[in-house]
Amino acid sequence: MSHPYFDCYLIPVATDKLAAYKRFSQQMMAVYVEYGAVRITDCILDPATTDGTQFHAEAAQDHLQASTLRDFPTAADTQSGETVILSWTEWPSKAIRDAALPRVLADPRVQPKPGEDMIFDGSRLISGGFFHFASLGRVDTTQNG
């Protein structure tokens, strides 16, 4: 039995380029799905959650007061006027992903167009491949945005 595989990204995006990023991402999503991706999800950082303390158990709060917590903006090296997109692509398996990804990245539809402004600084994109480890939850059939 094969297990899902995920490509995950932290992407710093200028807030004035979010509409362009969304268009770009939706175009990329269509290509990835065509090559076998199951689902692609983009999430935008909620600025009210960037200090990180609210995600730790109440009993751990005293210990954390003396700590410097890491956060997504720091990890993505965001600059003034930028936010963070957390994105992941779900594949049916690593084997399917490994076979498809080189074809996706060679597809003319994902290539930058001549003279096109870059939507984000690719040198600060953080990426990695992840094996499914565990999950629990309900299926949410609502779509946002």
**Beta-strand segment tally:** 4
Provide the spatial order of strands within the biggest beta sheet.
2-3-1-4
Structural class: alpha+beta
- Gross morphology: globular
Taking the alpha carbons of the first and last residues, their distance comes to: 34 Å
Contiguous helical run count: 4
Helicity level: 25-40%
Please explain how this structure is put together.
Helices cover 26% and strands 22% of the residues. It has a four-stranded antiparallel sheet with strand order 2-3-1-4. The protein contains four helices and four strands.
Summary keywords:
alpha+beta; about 20% strand; about 140 residues; 4 strands
Topology readout:
Layout: E1 5-14, H1 18-34, E2 39-44, H2 61-64, H3 72-75, E3 82-91, H4 94-106, E4 126-131
Antiparallel strand pairs: 1-3, 1-4, 2-3
Short description:
By secondary structure, the chain is an alpha+beta fold. The protein has helices at residues 18-34, 61-64, 72-75, 94-106; strands spanning 5-14, 39-44, 82-91, 126-131.
